[in-house]
């Protein structure tokens, strides 16, 4: 019949005797048990800030280099023998039958196994074919050289960009200066051209007036201009002066301004003795207040021919030649401007 009494406890090998006939039991410590009091509360881990991307890349490269160097160091260490229990060793396959393993066995070669396996040394891990051709055998040094080469390339690229920017700025400045100089030269050339054109126009006008002056003549000599066209006053019935007055001694010759035909010659009220000369273009020239007339109607005259004498007939205050210019439609114009337009100096 089963008993509810507990089975007798086997003596523990960890039970030791102590003074006073007391025994203390030592239990084996199991690190997998939750024998450590859990850490309570929140623990903040300060984040590292301000780490540049380039520093991160360099750190990874350094870690890789150190790892490769460690591998190389581990290869140079002497082999350590590992012993296994017979029960496990008997169940393992023959090491020489495994491909590529026989090379690691003492006294054996891969040629004996019939399998050709090329095992690269650990120190060449991560070395490119180009670096291997250059004689690189250490992965750490190769990576370091690669990082330095990349840094030099970046520096060279930055220097090239700065150089290109300086050259571009210099080119833009030179182009702006050239444009400014070109604009200045064009402005100076335009000013010279304008001055030359003005001078040529003035010369042409002078030549034209000189040619006209050769075919036109001042109506009298030894004169003084006393009244001009449009001058206002009560002396004239129209309220203003309609011609140009040449004050001169009585009997001074009156000349034909230009060649033409005498339209009329006779006494004409307030104008006194008046001669009307019609030019080829239809312009009429009136010579008034003459003391005498030397031509008759229908007579043709040439430039400078004497057609009469200065006098004081009609409505006058003294001897003078009253000269009027009328266009073909009968409109009166300023005689002074008209005469000067023909190249005459009045």
Can you characterise this structure?
- The protein has 346 residues and is of the alpha+beta class.
- Among the domains are: 59-72 and 98-192, no CATH class; 224-341, Distorted Sandwich (Glucose Permease (Domain IIA)), CATH 2.70.70.
- Helices cover 35% and strands 17% of the residues.
- It contains six helices and twelve strands.
- It has helices spanning 53-75, 86-91, 110-113, 129-133, 139-215, 335-341; strands spanning 15-18, 22-25, 224-227, 244-247, 253-255, 260-267, 273-279, 284-293, 300-301, 306-310, 320-326, 332-333.
- 15% of the residues are buried.
- Pfam families: Peptidase_M23.
- Residues 171-182 have a biased composition (Low complexity).
Topology:
Blueprint: E1 15-18, E2 22-25, H1 53-75, H2 86-91, H3 110-113, H4 129-133, H5 139-215, E3 224-227, E4 244-247, E5 253-255, E6 260-267, E7 273-279, E8 284-293, E9 300-301, E10 306-310, E11 320-326, E12 332-333, H6 335-341
Antiparallel strand pairs: 1-2, 3-4, 4-11, 5-10, 6-7, 6-9, 7-8, 8-10, 8-11, 11-12
Helix pairs in contact: 1-5
State the total count of DSSP E strands: 12
CATH evolutionary superfamily of the domain at 224-341: Glucose Permease (Domain IIA)
Radius of gyration: 66 Å
Average of per-residue pLDDT values? 76
Q: Classify the oligomer.
A: single chain
Strand content is 15-25%
Number of helices: 6
Architecture of the domain at 224-341, according to CATH? Distorted Sandwich
Shape: rod-shaped
CATH topology of the domain at 224-341: Glucose Permease (Domain IIA)
